[in-house]
């Protein structure tokens, strides 16, 4: 079944280019286009896309607020940020809002397709420098110890799942790597997010990198 994609960008030329290329892909179906954040939310609620490709600088409502609303109200819909802005003032709020990926608009078309598929499968898709921006932000603003997520609250299996999440692996790939069912992986992911007090897989991945689990 094709991945249902909603495109969100206020530049019609960008939308036209994305639509033209993505509609040539057998596994992707472009089901709608929005020019602002409010329409992005409205169309997401109506069309129930699998993935929303979201610009950040939008009229009426920016992409970060639209992402937050979509991820809170449509948890099965993934949001892949596609933007020209690469600084912590945009990266950090987007990830905190629940974005499942953060890429730059200069990405190669084939790489964008792979990212859409990866996000749909539950993988974290980040521009190479985004992790560095997030790590820099965390280093400059350490959380109080009382509010720091407790890695030791996780079981050995949950830590292993978290490590594989930080490597960008999907639930299916994690299941194959540690020889359990995909359903069991989903349970572990839900449990570890709850224990860490996190709502997004991307947050957990960054936390794992910070704690050195990805090494």
CATH architecture annotation of the largest domain: 3-Layer(aba) Sandwich
**C-alpha end-to-end distance:** 35 Å
CATH class of the largest domain: Alpha Beta
Based on CA inertia axes, which overall geometry fits?
A: globular
Mean pLDDT: 87
Radius of gyration: 17 Å
> What helical percentage do the residues reach?
40-55%
Number of strands: 6
In short:
The protein is built from ten helices and six strands. With 215 residues, it is of the alpha/beta class. The longest helix is centred in the C-terminal third of the chain and has 15 residues, at 182-196.
Task: Give your account of this protein's structure.
The chain has 215 residues and is of the alpha/beta class. The protein folds into two domains: 3-129, Response regulator (Rossmann fold, 3-Layer(aba) Sandwich); 144-210, Arc Repressor Mutant, subunit A (Orthogonal Bundle). 51% of the residues lie in helices and 13% in strands. The protein contains ten helices and six strands; from the N terminus they run βαβαβαβαβαβααααα. Strands 2-1-3-4-5-6 form a six-stranded parallel beta sheet, with helices on both faces. β5 (101-104), α5 (109-120) and β6 (125-126) form a beta-alpha-beta unit. α7 packs across α9 (182-196), α7 packs across α10 and α8 crosses α9 (182-196). The radius of gyration is 17 Å and the shape is globular. Keywords: DNA-binding, Phosphoprotein, Transcription, Transcription regulation.
């Amino acid at each position: 079944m094709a991945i249902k994609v909603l495109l969100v960008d206020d530049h019609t030329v960008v939308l036209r280019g994305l639509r033209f290329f993505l509609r040539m892909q057998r596994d992707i179906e472009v089901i709608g286009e929005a020019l602002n954040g409010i329409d992005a939310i409205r169309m997401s609620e109506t069309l129930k896309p699998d993935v929303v490709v979201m610009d950040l600088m939008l009229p009426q409502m920016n992409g970060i607020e639209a992402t937050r609303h979509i991820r809170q109200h449509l948890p099965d819909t993934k949001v892949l940020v596609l933007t020209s802005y690469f600084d912590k003032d945009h990266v950090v709020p987007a990830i905190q809002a629940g974005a499942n990926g953060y890429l730059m608009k200069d990405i190669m078309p084939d790489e964008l397709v792979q990212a859409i598929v990866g996000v749909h499968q539950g993988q974290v898709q980040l521009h190479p420098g985004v992790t560095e921006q997030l790590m820099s932000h965390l280093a400059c603003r350490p959380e109080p110890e009382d509010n720091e997520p407790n890695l030791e609250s996780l079981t050995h299996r949950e830590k292993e799942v978290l490590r594989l999440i930080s490597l960008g692996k999907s639930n299916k790939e994690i299941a194959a790597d540690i020889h359990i069912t995909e359903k069991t992986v989903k349970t572990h992911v839900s449990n570890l997010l709850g224990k860490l007090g996190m709502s997004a897989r991307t947050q957990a991945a960054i936390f794992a990198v910070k704690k050195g689990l990805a090494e």
